[in-house]
Write a structure and sequence with these properties.
flat; 2 strands; two-stranded antiparallel ribbon
């Protein structure tokens, strides 16, 4: 049986990794207490303000169902983080190293109350940043390999949209995003950098308009 599992892992490393991650998250969702977030370590942030406003509009109370839904949503988000860590490492190294590295978030990034990232905003913003970084990295790998026919400028725009949403959820990540833009300029890809920047601006403006419609002031949640 062990040999069969090993062969399956070697043949389908990503599927094996995600099955392990799902199993871990089912256990945590079933047995973790509370809403999956350590509210006592959260400072007032834009994301929590936005969530409070949604709860107010929907009339969501303190129920068992709400707790299970909250834990499940955190678990689903963390699955995306595991996937992106694997994809990025696979691009830069190989599938074996990608599998080993992705085991870290598989067990240690499950939800803010169960793992190494306690801040809910960082926890929810991380997969958006990783997705945007993965798209940019993939395009740069294609460009480096002179596969110009497969490079799409719109991919940088999509990456920018994800990075912009990441900033809106976790505003401290702007320093990571600025680093990505700087790297693109250093690598002499100004068009890609500008398309990425355009996507970032569009995402931030769109979220700002939504907050304005919901009568939420984003400036009151920015704490340096």
């Amino acid at each position: 049986m062990l040999q069969g599992l090993k062969r399956f892992k070697e043949k389908h490393p990503f599927t094996a990794l995600m099955l392990i991650a799902i199993a871990v998250r089912i256990l945590v969702v079933a047995f973790a207490p509370g809403y999956g977030s350590n509210h006592e370590v959260q400072h007032t942030t834009l994301f929590l303000g936005f969530v409070d406003k949604i709860k107010e509009l929907l009339g969501i109370g303190q129920t068992v169902s709400a707790k299970v839904i909250s834990r499940s949503l955190y678990a689903l988000v963390s699955l995306f983080t595991v996937s992106m860590v694997y994809r990025i490492c696979d691009l830069t190294s190989n599938k074996q190293n990608a599998w080993l590295l992705a085991l870290i978030p598989t067990f240690s990034i499950v939800m803010p109350s169960f793992g190494i990232i306690e801040n809910a905003n960082a926890f929810l913003g991380l997969p958006l940043l990783l997705y945007g970084a993965n798209v940019v990295l993939r395009q740069e790998v294609l460009r480096q390999n002179n596969l110009k026919e497969k490079i799409h400028r719109t991919s940088f725009l999509i990456a920018g949209l994800m990075l912009g949403l990441g900033i809106c959820v976790w505003y401290e990540s702007i320093f990571v995003v600025l680093s990505i833009l700087l790297i693109l300029f250093i690598r002499r890809n100004p068009k890609g950098a500008l398309m990425t920047l355009a996507g970032i601006v569009i995402a931030i403006v769109a979220v700002g308009l939504l907050l304005w419609a919901l009568n939420v002031n984003p400036l009151k949640y920015i704490q340096l």
